[in-house]
Amino acid sequence: METNTVILFSALFLIGGVMMAKFSSRLGVPALVLFIIVGMLFGSDGFGFIYFDNASLTQSLGILALVLILFDGGLQTEWRRTKAVLPISLSLATVGVLITAGIFGVAAKLFLDVTWNEALLVGAIVGSTDAAAVFAVMKGKNIKRKLQSTLEAESGSNDPMAMFLTLTLLQLAIGEESFGASLFLSFFWQMGAGLLIGILFGFAASWAMKSIDLGSNGLYPVFSIGIALFTYSMTDLVNASGLLAVYAAALVLGNTKSLPYGQTIFRFHDGIAWMMQILMFIVLGLLVFPSELFSTWIVLKGLALSFILIFIARPVAVLISSIPFKFTMKEKAFLSWAGLRGAVPIVLATFPLLEGLENSQLFFNLVFFIVMTSALFQGTTIPYIAKRLGLTGPEVHIPSHSLELVSSTTVNAEMIPYTITSSSKLIGEELSDISFPDKVLVSAIIRQDELIAPSGDTKIKVNDVLYILVENQKRSELEKVLGIRKTIGG
């Protein structure tokens, strides 16, 4: 394709993707489904505009996209909420993935004419939930924070387990590896070193952003992208889990107090994550051939295996993984249902394709079909299931306005947003009656998408978003008044 044609299609995909993301929220359909459908329509089996069968390029783009999506997910994750559910999240991300892969592998052996190693390989590929799908579906929903934090932390940390199992079983299938103690040591190294490197890089990035005046607010988001890519590549260089390191680094950075241009960085990465989702899922749609994907054989086998995954493998994995933790049966049922599959299984399914493994095309088509089934069947019903189980919280209000103090590391103040929740002790209080520290000013209040100029007799209401100007040295005092707990980066 000519350069201008590539640019034109890229523009159409991005503009169309943004429109579909808005449209999907109204329909209740995960945006990834619409992106994939667009890719299939533009591909050789659709309108025939683009012929694309480059699995290697798809894999590289997929990993790049996952790095940036996970980084955005880590930035948006609140440590004070996540630390309470971290044990069960890690249990689901390790033991849960292993159990899911094992049960699905047994089913694949029964339904498909493949070896045990190949069956378990397919199980490993679909074993993990997907961060891109989970973050997108959960965003803005009024699902109980404990459950939402559990699912987000699980999806952000279970990719290393799935990738380790996939690559190990693939090496066994092609005869380059054998079972032994080295496999277990390799797993603990990947997880442990990946987590440690990510935390160290996160604190280093936080220190650098606070200490170095880059001179322009536009350079801070660019610097953060460099941190994400550098963290992944350096961790992968020592054969540790780069994806886990990226998520851990972003978690530290996103919970850093007084991060220069924090809101600018967060909004920038939110946009980058959406762009990566659009391009990644469209490319994945281009790679698959609908005539093969929707053949009678693939549909029948795919539906049977999807049923096993959704109604047997995932629930059993959740039940066993959550035994030591205090979760009700309704909460466990919801965690089972919300185990969405997405880009990660499809990207992992490209590894057998590149190795030329027998039945690799069959595995890719089956995994793709299962992901589509999961997104359509589970993704569209998550809010309904949560409501039926009584696991919803107060309505989430996302303000359409945002304010940020244009400052740098040389300015000793910042503008912070604070949302008044139903549990806030400030509800009903007038601003003049709140004991704010000296030199703290409530500059604006967003109420039901309207801007209010505050005065002393302005009463605080639920879902108000207060934009508060505060000197850096007064922030700790302000957080005590607001009831904010200390974060890991503070």
Q: What's the arrangement of secondary structure elements?
A:
Elements: H1 3-27, H2 31-42, H3 55-76, H4 79-111, H5 116-125, H6 131-138, H7 145-157, H8 159-173, H9 181-211, H10 219-237, H11 242-254, H12 262-287, H13 290-293, H14 296-321, H15 329-337, H16 343-348, H17 350-355, H18 360-379, H19 382-388, E1 413-419, E2 440-447, E3 450-452, E4 465-471, H20 475-482
Antiparallel strand pairs: 1-4, 2-3, 2-4
What does this structure look like?
- The protein has 490 residues and is mainly alpha-helical.
- It contains 20 helices and 4 strands.
- It has helices at residues 3-27, 31-42, 55-76, 79-111, 116-125, 131-138, 145-157, 159-173, 181-211, 219-237, 242-254, 262-287, 290-293, 296-321, 329-337, 343-348, 350-355, 360-379, 382-388, 475-482; strands spanning 413-419, 440-447, 450-452, 465-471.
- The model is unreliable at 486-490 (pLDDT under 50).
- Residues 403-484 form the RCK C-terminal domain.
- Keywords: Antiport, Cell membrane, Ion transport, Membrane, Transmembrane, Transmembrane helix, Transport.
- It is a multi-pass membrane protein.
Helix percentage: 55-70%
Number of strands: 4
Q: How would you characterize the largest beta sheet? A: 4 strands, antiparallel
Count of helix runs: 20
Low-confidence stretches: 486-490
Strand content: 5-15%
What series of H and E elements makes up the topology? HHHHHHHHHHHHHHHHHHHEEEEH
What multimeric state do the chains show? Answer: single chain
Shape: globular
How far apart are the first and last residues' alpha carbons, in Å? 50 Å
Question: What structural class should be given to the helix and strand makeup?
Answer: mainly alpha
Identify the strand order in the major beta sheet.
Answer: 1-4-2-3
Q: Let me know the average pLDDT.
A: 85
Q: What's the alpha carbon Rg, rounded to whole Å?
A: 23 Å
